[in-house]
Amino acid sequence: MAFDAADIRLLKIFTSIVEAGGLAPAQDELNISLSTISGHLTALEARLRLTLAQRGRAGFRLTPEGQSVYEEARRLFGAIDSFDVRMHALKQKMTGTLHLGITDNTISDPLCPLEKVLAKFADQAPEVTLEVVTRPPSELLRAILVGQIQIAIASFPRTALGLEYIPLYDEVQSFYCGVDHPLFSTSDEEIDVGIVREHKLVSRTYWGQRDLKIFESVEPRARVSDMEAEERLILSGRFLGYLPDHYAKQFVAQGRIRQIRPDLFRYKAVFQAACEPTERKRGLVSFFIKLLKSELNLKA
Fold first, then answer.
1. Chain segment 25-71, per-residue pLDDT in tens
2. CA distances in angstroms from 6 to 40, 42, 77, 204, listed in the order given
3. In angstroms, how far is CA 19 from the centroid of its own chain?
4. Distance from CA of residue 23 to its chain's centroid?
5. For residue range 190-244, what is the model confidence (pLDDT) as tens digits?
6. E strands of the chain, at which residues?
7. Tally of CA atoms within 13 A in the half-sphere of 183 that contains its CB
8. Among positive and negative, which fits the CA dihedral 156, 159, 163, 165?
9. What CATH class is the domain 5-90?
């Protein structure tokens, strides 16, 4: 069958329904009525001659055919986004320097494929020079405000007024102890907030009190400015602290650290891209953000 613009629109509505978890939750995202959403889904099913989802009192559930259509639609929209980005690059020859700032130790996170974005940027804007710095989140925001960098990618516990923040993905943080720590061999059933408060805790200075919020005014016995320093303190067996799961994974596999009460202490840190609103509309910054959102399968 030959697809046209109307079919593309129906597929976009369908993917929004799937990603929202049903017709009713998709209303806010699509800004159209429930009956209209239902009509569009029915029209797409008629067009494809497939039943894409079961809906009713039991809730919304994709059929196997619906799951396949959703996956193909996501691939289609990724290709369209890549085409759009490429055409943008062809229309305006980009030169100059893009100043990018990132926080440390994100390279092990599979949700942060920056290397793929950088590869596409280098291929499609070959005359642009990239300058990349790694700093704590608060310093990255200050660097934007004083004009040292144009884009910052991190989880920002505090935001600076006047900047635009684009949500990218969530980084899972868990609470860890080293193999030589007294709690390493203690079962989770025996550990609670009160028990943890009796031990030395590490605080990441760039995240303020976010790590220690659950422990109610406990003073940290160590403060660090980066993830590697925190890992070393945890490995010492004398301190407890938070680490991103992707970063801690290698040490867990080696049996050198373990998570403590993930049901109680685990949380998600939202990673964002921050930039000046005026910069967002300009060539290099706009182009990089388009590539970034396309790689992460985010809406343009």
1. 888 778 888 888 888 888 888 888 888 888 877 788 888 998 888 88
2. 10, 14, 14, 50
3. 16
4. 25
5. 999 999 999 999 998 877 677 788 887 788 899 998 889 999 999 999 999 999 9
6. 53-54, 61-62, 96-102, 128-134, 151-154, 164-178, 202-204, 222-224, 241-244, 257-259, 267-275
7. 30
8. positive
9. mainly alpha
Give residue 57's identity as a one-letter amino acid code.
R
Distance in Å from the first CA to the final CA of the chain: 27
Per CATH, the number for 171-269 is 3.40.190.290
Q: In terms of CATH, what superfamily is 98-163+275-295?
A: Periplasmic binding protein-like II (3.40.190.10)
Q: Is the dihedral of CA 75, 81, 87, 93 positive or negative?
A: negative
Residue with structure tokens 């399968």? 297
Whole-prediction pTM value? 0.68
- What are the residue ranges spanned by the domains of the chain? 5-90, 98-163+275-295, 171-269
